[in-house]
Amino acid sequence: MIEALVDQGVDAFRVNMSHGTKDDHAQRIALIREVETSRGSPVGILADLQGPKIRIGSFSEAAVLVETGSEFVLDDQNSPGNSHRVELPHPELFGAINVGDEILLNDGRVRLVAKEVSPGRIVCDVRVGGELSAAKGVNVPGTVLPIRAMTDKDRRDLDFALSSAVDWIGLSFVQTPEDVAEARKIIAGRAGLLAKIEKPSAIKWLEEITSLSDGIMVARGDLGVELPLELVPGLQKKIVAEARDQGKPVVVATQMLESMIESPTPTRAEVSDVATAVYDGADAVMLSAESAVGKFPREAVAMMDRIIRQAETEPTYRALRSSWRPEVENTTADAISAAAKQVAESIGAAAIVTYTTTGSTALRAARQRPTVPLIVITTRRGTGRRLALLSGAHSVHTSDTRDFDDMVEKACRIAVHDGIAVENDQLVITAGVPFGTPGATNILRVARVPRIKR
Fold first, then answer.
1. Which one of 28, 33, 55, 298 is the catalytic residue?
2. Alpha helices for 232-287 (secondary structure H)
3. Residue 85: active-site member
4. Same structural domain for residues 68 and 36?
5. Within a domain: 375
6. Options 14, 184, 364, 369, the catalytic residue
7. Is 109 a catalytic residue?
8. Are 101 and 170 in a shared domain?
9. Angle, nearest 10°, between helix axes 152-163 and 177-187?
């Protein structure tokens, strides 16, 4: 199945640390690497940390009905609840919630407002009632909770993920820049840090969180619980724009083709949703249950791939891409990356080719959002895997170049072999001399592809 999904267009896989055992994850990671080797192109792996899960306690019955307009109490009493009260086994919350704060239970299906707060007891008005059962989730929108983004379980999972050489770490429950800084210190460059924007407080600190992260995920599921749903589309555009401005890969996730869990075809609205993420400028779009537990994983991936490809051919997409011009930083590397886009589009080049060690050159090139493919050639397999999330990037792992002529020859051969260019096409090539020096992009070369046997 992993082979089939890669063949249908998957560039990276998410390993969800909320489910399964470490043995399960290790087996799947090994299978992905096996498929990567057989296919000959880098495949990224994202280990998604669970983050804190705030849940209510148990009930004396399988489920209870909490009525709208009634009073409901959250307390610290370790006993089964009923339709009027339940345990909240998180003592740190009793000091963080204030009168007037909204408290959401069961993904927002039950909505409470705190009217009395005392040690170990929160009395609430039920604004929207509904059914509750044991261990349903609790959300407190608009409140920065005194809870760190990483639990003890997350730290153990992080150690496992890093020892398994995954390429990205997804950090859940990000509330402030300090949450990102803490994780970044532990990761220490061994993987990219992808901050999931799913809490309203993260929107307040969006610029700082993006700056501290290597990538961003628009986690629309929790955003849609903690904020009015009508705000999510605008926030998606805001988050994507901030990531693009800073040159960080951005992933849009959650319920993109949700109906394909059970159906071989998506709804028209879902197709439009995926295309909108592409138009917004997302680097990647992500499937969740559609491919993890759905009945039609191949079809879901193939449909996602077709939607992306079609959206990128539309005049609307090209117009939006051309209208956005990031500010060029006062560096040689950034100036050459901006020039590469202009030259490639002016001469109708088949592709832009970047030689990169750490990936910084490729990130700069992708930030310009060229309308031609971006071939990324790197001597580091890990760099190629990490860049699997990057917009328009086709990563190739290869041995180091001997000299400038070897660099040009290798770029032409790869472009032809991978079906991106043919004889007499032109390539715009950027690199840094001396070779292998990170961040030293200082050359732009236009090369014409000679006759090469594929």
1. 55
2. 232-245, 268-280
3. no
4. no
5. yes
6. 14
7. no
8. no
9. 40
Report if residue 6 sits inside a domain.
yes
**Same-domain check for residues 213 and 267:** yes
Distances (CA, A) of 187 to 159, 165, 205: 9, 11, 21
- Each residue of 343-366: pLDDT tens digit? 999 999 999 999 998 999 899 999
Q: Is there a single domain that holds both residue 158 and residue 96?
A: no
Q: Which residue reads 């803490």 in tokens?
A: 182
Last residue of a domain, one of 300, 320, 340: 320
Q: What is the mean pLDDT of residues 427-433?
A: 89
| 326 within a domain of the structure (yes/no) | no
> Is 55 an active-site residue?
yes
CATH of the domain at 207: 3.20.20.60
Give residue-wise pLDDT tens across range 383-423: 999 999 999 999 999 887 778 888 899 999 999 999 999 99
Residue 89, domain extent: 64-139
| The pTM of the whole model exceeds 0.70 | yes
Annotated catalytic residue: which of 111, 136, 196, 199?
196
In angstroms, the CA 168 to CA 64 distance is 41
Q: Where are the beta strands (DSSP E) in 51-109?
A: 64-66, 71-75, 85-87, 102-105
User: What's the rounded Cα separation, in Å, for the pair 19 and 146?
Assistant: 25
Q: Tell me which DSSP letter residue 147 carries.
A: -
In a domain, 57, yes or no: no
Q: Which of 143, 176, 210, 254 is catalytic?
A: 254
The reply to whether 14 belongs to the active site is: yes
